Amino acid sequence: MDHCNGLFLLFSLLVVNPATQRWACLPPLPSHSTELDFRFLYDQGLIVFDPIVSPHYEVFMIPFVNPGQYCIERTDLVLKESEWPPSPLILHVFSSAAERWEEKSFVREGDSAGTVAYAQRQCHLDKHGNFYWRGALYVNSYFLMRISISDGSYQVIHHPIEVYKSRPYVYFGKSEKGVYLASLTIDGRLSIWVLDESCGQFKWVLEHQNNLKPLLLRLNRSKQVYGPWILRDINYHLYSQKFPGEWDLYDQNYDPSHFYSPNDEAPTENNFEWHSDDDDIVDNQCNSEERNRGDYLTFLGFHPYKEVVFMSSGSMKGFAYHIKSSKLQCLGNLYPKHYEHFAEHEHICQSFPYTPCWVDELPETSISVHNLCQD
């Protein structure tokens, strides 16, 4: 459902740290006790974790307007014309320090984003790209909502005017200069904005623009790279040793022991490095007649401290776009070796940059593959 500084929040309300191999189960979410009609809303959990400040974490349940036609037709007129987001905005917040859910109130500073009815018409937009930065939670909707955790306030930050005109795919993230907005149109036009938060005001400053279709065309004709994507927790060979014969239930022709070898182990950290002078990087040079062809891209995320945006083509191939040099780099096939056997018929539908963290206050409950096999 979400991730922050090395912690994962799963849809089953489990918090997991893959680096320390520990996890915690959150208590059931209580019912809302406010007067706001929550029948037309659904909650999305966002996790806040800053190991520099504290080893504890918080989980915020953020309400979004439900896209169902039933809600649009049956919700009363007064509710449909009420402002969204409301003020105060009441959120369920779980604190690992207090080990319980609490209701916290956040008062809006400035104007709302519109009405509930307008939010219902916009709710089909992608909600990925939420993140925590410098004491504030940034929530992606058809606007950017900045929730200040320390003083109990929030602001609505509208997209740049150009984004509203072209209606591209929008992604928010944090990188070298702070808060970034990346937009990508269906014909491959990429725009990058940086949020200026100086003097208490919020202003989007255009940082970069480019057409990526020519770069994709040249990259597709160049040398292809298919690594170093791997399964970091390769436990199917351990399972086959502990429970021989049970793999026949999934695939009678597949024996994981025939495929696994010591060479499948995780490579060293240096093998993950990529540089701007590699052979599979192309610059912004291409013939004009090729500009309307190429792959369709989606965002994976921003590099946390370099001006690099990660993208994928149909969730199959990974790319890194260097904003300062306008160069595109192929990161290979996103599906690791033997993935189709290990995950059966599951498909990768989303990827994101992940930085492991070795500090947490999660219980001493291991999720190692050894314990899973024994259990």
A few lines on this structure:
The chain has 375 residues and is α+β, with helices and mostly antiparallel strands. The protein is 14% helix and 34% strand.
Order of strands, main sheet, comes to: 5-6-8-9-14-13-12-11
Major sheet description: 8 strands, mixed
Whole-number radius of gyration?
23 Å
Poorly predicted runs are 247-254, 264-274, 285-294, 368-375
Characterize the overall form.
globular
Q: Calculate the terminal CA-CA distance, rounded to whole Å.
A: 26 Å
Give me the number of helical elements: 9
Q: Estimate the strand proportion.
A: 25-35%
Global structural class: alpha+beta
Features:
375 residues, alpha+beta, 8-stranded mixed sheet, 5-stranded antiparallel sheet, 9 helices, 23 strands, F-box associated domain-containing protein, signal
What can you see in these coordinates?
With 375 residues, the protein is an alpha+beta fold. It has a domain at 1-135. The chain has helices at 69-74, 77-80, 116-122, 161-166, 213-221, 236-242, 256-259, 339-342, 369-374; strands spanning 2-4, 7-9, 14-17, 22-25, 41-49, 57-65, 83-84, 89-95, 100-108, 114-115, 131-133, 136-140, 144-148, 153-157, 169-175, 178-184, 189-196, 203-211, 281-282, 297-302, 308-313, 317-322, 327-333. The chain is globular, with a radius of gyration of 23 Å. 26% of the residues are buried. Residues 247-254, 264-274, 285-294 and 368-375 have low confidence and may be disordered. Keywords: Signal. It comes from Oryza nivara (Indian wild rice). This is F-box associated domain-containing protein. Residues 1-21 form the signal peptide.
